[in-house]
Amino acid sequence: MYTPRIRDTDHTDRRINQLGASLFFDPITIAHASANGIDDVFALYAGGRAGVLGDVTATQAAAALGFFPVELVRVIWAHGQAIMQPAQIARIYADAMSEAARQVWDCAAAKIVVELGTVVADSVPLLGLPLFAGRREMARPSDPVGAAVHVVHTLRELRGDIHVQSVGAQGLRPLEAEVVSRGSEGAALHQWPQPWPDPAPFVEQVAAADAATGERMCRMYACAIGVDGFTRFADAVDRLKPA
Q1: Closest CA to 95 of 159, 51, 128
Q2: CA angle at 212 for the pair 22 and 233, rounded to the nearest 5°
Q3: Could you tell me the CA-to-CA distances from 219 to 14, 57, 166 in Å, in that order?
Q4: d(Cα 127, Cα 236) in Å, to the nearest integer?
Q5: I want to staple 62 with a disulfide (CB 3.0 to 4.6 A). Which of 12, 73, 145, 235 is the partner?
Q6: Could you give the dihedral angle defined by the CA atoms of residues 122, 93, 11 and 121, in that order, rounded to the nearest 10 degrees?
Q7: pLDDT (tens digit per residue) in 7-58
Q8: Any idea where the domains of the chain sit in the sequence?
C-alpha cells in the first residue's frame, strides 16, 4: 500500500510534547487538583500519567513511565495510593489540565486538533503502548479545548510509548538515554542516583532510537490523515497556545 511521505513531523511532536508538559504543573492545574484532594504534586504527576493503567504496582508504573528510577516511582506511587486510587488521580489530573488550558488555548485551533488528532489516535493498533492505550480510553470532555487537551496528551503518550520501545530496541538503559537526551540536568530532574554514566558511548544508539521514533510517527500520521491533513493538523497545533 502506498503511503504518502510527510516531512518534519518532529516539530509537531515537539510542540505536542511542550503543550502537554506546560499543563502538568500549571498553577490552575495544581489548584484544581488540590481542591479535589491531591496536594502532592509528584503523586499527582505519577498517578495522573500512569493512573490510566488502573490499580497497577509501582514497578509496573515505572516500566510504563520509562525514564524514572524504579525506587523513586515506588515512593511516589505509595504516596499517591495513600491519597486515592490511581485511576481517580488520573481523572482529576485530566480535568485539572483541561481547566488550565481553557484559559489560554485557542478554540478554533482546538477543533481542528480534535478532528484530525482523533483520526490519528484511532488508527493506531494497541501493541505495547500502555500509556497511550489508557489515555485514549479516558472520557473526553465535550468542549473543544477540553477535548483538545485529551487528544494532545493521547498523542504525547503515543510518541512516548514508541520512544520507550525504540530506546529498548537499541539495548539502552533508561539512564543511558537520559544523559544523552537531557544531560546531567535531566538526570538530576528525574532524580537518578549518581554517578551518572558518560554519555559519549551512547550517542549513536540514542540517535538511532530518535530516528526510529520519528519515522514511525511519520508513517502513522501519513497513513491516518495524509499530507494535506497533517499540514492542517500541524498548523492548528502551532496555533493552540500563544507563543
Answers
A1: 51
A2: 50
A3: 17, 33, 15
A4: 28
A5: 73
A6: 0
A7: 779 999 999 999 999 999 999 999 999 999 999 999 999 999 999 999 999 9
A8: 21-104, 110-243
Distance of CA 88 to the CA centre of its chain: 18
Give the dihedral sign, CA 141/73/65/182: positive
Query: Average of pLDDT values for 187-215?
Result: 96
Task: Give the other-Cβ count within 10 Å of 34's Cβ.
Answer: 15
Residue with cell 500519567: 49
Q: Are 146 and 113 in contact (CB under 8 A)?
A: no
Distance CA 117, CA 126 (A): 16
Q: What are the φ and ψ backbone dihedral angles of 219, each rounded to 5 degrees? A: -65, -40
Q: Report d(CA 8, CA 6) in Å as an integer.
A: 7
Residue 81 cell numbers, joined: 495510593
pTM of the model: 0.95
Grid look-up 518534519 returns 8
C-alpha–C-alpha distance, residues 51 and 89, integer Å:
7
Helices (H), the chain: 9-24, 27-35, 41-50, 58-65, 70-83, 86-101, 107-123, 130-137, 144-169, 174-181, 183-189, 203-239
Helix 58-65 to helix 130-137 angle (10° resolution) is 100
